[in-house]
Amino acid sequence: MNPQNNFSTSGSNNKNEGSQSVTDNNSVTKRLQSELMQLMMSNTPGVSAFPSSDSNLLNWSGTITGPKDTVYENLTFKISLSFPNDYPYSAPTIKFVSPMWHPNVDMSGNICLDILKERWSAVYNVQTILLSLQSLLGEPNNKSPLNAQAAQLWDEDMESYKVHLMDRYQEIDE
């Protein structure tokens, strides 16, 4: 069995896989509980995330406030975080729930960020992900845009960029 893929599959004859799946879910739960405590204790400004419900630790809601001295300053965005059963060996799926205007975020809220894709590492945690997303707001990667129009305006016409951003922006209820 591949050590990075320890979840059980249906139809298997291996009697140990069911207990292995429970063990894996327990380790994911423990990791996420630990990360939640770390995040709560750190009191990192501008980012927060919590499980969406007490019954499911794999789905979280979070907020990111734009960094100081950027067009996103004082704007707060809601995100969703969905953790796979093999977390931290696989990256969580993160999307902007709030409407977003950004070169690396498409109109559906999908995010193009290398640490959430090909550069994912098990050393990353919720806090580092949130801080990376916050940093991305002020420093987009225009070489790999999901929103080509936003990337072009970022490079050529920041005033028009700000207009588009504020047209899409919606304050969130906390």
Automatic annotation (TrEMBL):
<dbReference type="GO" id="GO:0006511">
    <property type="term" value="P:ubiquitin-dependent protein catabolic process"/>
</dbReference>
<feature type="domain" description="UBC core">
    <location>
        <begin position="27"/>
        <end position="174"/>
    </location>
</feature>
<keyword id="KW-0547">Nucleotide-binding</keyword>
<dbReference type="GO" id="GO:0005524">
    <property type="term" value="F:ATP binding"/>
</dbReference>
<dbReference type="InterPro" id="IPR023313">
    <property type="entry name" value="UBQ-conjugating_AS"/>
</dbReference>
<keyword id="KW-0833">Ubl conjugation pathway</keyword>
<dbReference type="GO" id="GO:1902426">
    <property type="term" value="P:deactivation of mitotic spindle assembly checkpoint"/>
</dbReference>
<dbReference type="InterPro" id="IPR000608">
    <property type="entry name" value="UBC"/>
</dbReference>
<comment type="similarity">
    <text>Belongs to the ubiquitin-conjugating enzyme family.</text>
</comment>
<protein>
    <recommendedName>
        <fullName>E2 ubiquitin-conjugating enzyme</fullName>
        <ecNumber>2.3.2.23</ecNumber>
    </recommendedName>
</protein>
<dbReference type="InterPro" id="IPR050113">
    <property type="entry name" value="Ub_conjugating_enzyme"/>
</dbReference>
<feature type="region of interest" description="Disordered">
    <location>
        <begin position="1"/>
        <end position="26"/>
    </location>
</feature>
<keyword id="KW-0067">ATP-binding</keyword>
<dbReference type="GO" id="GO:0061631">
    <property type="term" value="F:ubiquitin conjugating enzyme activity"/>
</dbReference>
<feature type="active site" description="Glycyl thioester intermediate">
    <location>
        <position position="112"/>
    </location>
</feature>
<keyword id="KW-0808">Transferase</keyword>
<dbReference type="InterPro" id="IPR016135">
    <property type="entry name" value="UBQ-conjugating_enzyme/RWD"/>
</dbReference>
<dbReference type="Pfam" id="PF00179">
    <property type="entry name" value="UQ_con"/>
</dbReference>
